[in-house]
Amino acid sequence: MCTYQAANMYYYKYSINGVNIILLNSLVFVVVSIMGHFVQPVHDALGSGVLFVISMISVIPLANLIGLCITSIAVRLRVLCLPDVFVR
To answer: Which of the 8 DSSP states describes residue 32?
Structure first.
């Protein structure tokens, strides 16, 4: 987890490799939800409602990372597909 200046008022502005630190810190919810789904059939450690909420929260950073990957792929394909005639 990234805790550099965690008490700062402008914490949401920091990023590492183009990914917001708040989204990097929320990747913990992804790990907890995956482990919760594996553990729940054996032990009901987390309630179904709590596990559902954690799973819904974990969708946010994953959607952001998928969006960043799609943008990166689109930029690279655009450079490869356009011939030099159209580039000014």
So the answer is: H
Provide φ and ψ at 15, rounded to 5°.
Answer: -145, 155
Per-domain residue ranges of the chain = 11-81
Residue 15, helix vs strand vs coil: strand
pTM for this model (two decimals): 0.66
The DSSP result for 43-81, as a single string, is ---S-HHHHHHHHHHHHHHHHHHHHHHHHHHHHHHHHHH
Provide the residue-wise pLDDT of the chain in tens; the chain has 88 residues: 555 555 667 766 777 777 777 788 888 889 888 888 888 777 776 788 888 899 999 999 899 889 888 888 888 877 666 555 555 5
Which amino acid is it at 74? A
How far is Cα 58 from Cα 33, in angstroms, rounded to an integer? 7
